[in-house]
TrEMBL record:
Transmembrane segments: none
Protein name, per record: NADP-dependent 3-hydroxy acid dehydrogenase YdfG
Recorded family membership: Belongs to the short-chain dehydrogenases/reductases (SDR) family.
UniProt cross-references to PANTHER family, sorted A to Z: 5-KETO-D-GLUCONATE 5-REDUCTASE (PTHR43669), ALCOHOL DEHYDROGENASE, PUTATIVE (AFU_ORTHOLOGUE AFUA_3G03445)-RELATED (PTHR43669:SF3)
Record's keyword annotation contains Ribonucleoprotein: no
Key word Oxidoreductase present: yes
InterPro entries referenced in this protein's UniProt entry, alphabetically: NAD(P)-bd_dom_sf, SDR_fam
Pfam family, one: adh_short
SUPFAM superfamilies linked: NAD(P)-binding Rossmann-fold domains
UniProt keyword terms in alphabetical order: Oxidoreductase
Length: 218
């Protein structure tokens, strides 16, 4: 039998790296899609040193054609995707009077639209029992006005997760976002590793009582 596979979209340092490590500890092979070579290859090298099978691709996920090609290539390499994890978002420190419409649309394309690209590209490889997980944020409910586009992204991606779950659940595929209600830090309850634990728990929750949003309070 082949190992289950997690495909991490927006791979790099922080939560995405912790998610890759967490699932790898559970026996998953790991596919990484990121924009910048150094953090992707650093993470891949670390996982390979632990004996994990890892494949990587580089692409800007807002470039729909390039992202779709990379995602499809990763999925084809393994022949399956059991968990699709979506992590990207844009932090732009501009309040609503400074934020241009083009800025907002670009940020939403990254933090929300790219999830559509990822799910559509990997859908043929997601089978019964497949999961889509998303890193959410309290910015969806309590936006900081100085980063107005982030709240829009997090509210939008959470809403999209609800729709994805409703669309996919009849095929046994479920979607969930974990709303991180705190600020990421190097220690304490909101470390990337602790958030990754919450995302793993969300992905493996009882399907009979499935929730499409789970708050992580730390």
């Amino acid at each position: 039998m082949t190992n289950p596979v997690i495909l991490v979209v927006g791979a790099g340092p922080g939560v995405s790296a912790s998610v890759a490590r967490r699932f790898a500890r559970e026996g998953y092979d790991v596919a990484l899609l990121g924009r910048d070579r150094d953090p992707v290859e650093t993470l891949a090298g670390e996982l390979r040193a632990r004996g994990v099978r890892v494949e990587t691709r580089l692409a800007d996920v807002t470039d729909v054609e390039a992202a779709r090609e990379s995602l499809t290539g990763l999925a084809q390499t393994f022949g399956r995707v059991d968990v699709l994890h979506f992590n990207p978002s844009a932090f732009r420190e501009k309040d609503p009077l400074e934020l241009e419409v083009d800025d907002l649309l670009a940020d939403v394309a990254l933090g929300v639209g790219a999830l559509l690209t990822a799910v559509q590209a990997t859908r043929p490889f997601l089978q019964d029992g497949g999961r889509v997980t998303v890193t959410g944020s309290m910015a969806a409910d309590q936006p900081w006005h100085r980063a107005a586009s982030l709240g829009v992204q997090k509210a939008g991606v959470r809403n999209l997760v609800h729709s994805l779950d409703a669309t996919l659940r009849d095929d046994g595929i479920r979607a969930v976002s974990v709303t991180v209600r705190g600020t990421l830090s190097g220690d304490g309850p909101f470390t990337p590793d602790r958030v990754a634990d919450a995302l793993y728990d969300a992905a493996t929750q009882d399907e009979q009582h499935w929730r499409t949003e789970i708050p992580y309070e730390g």
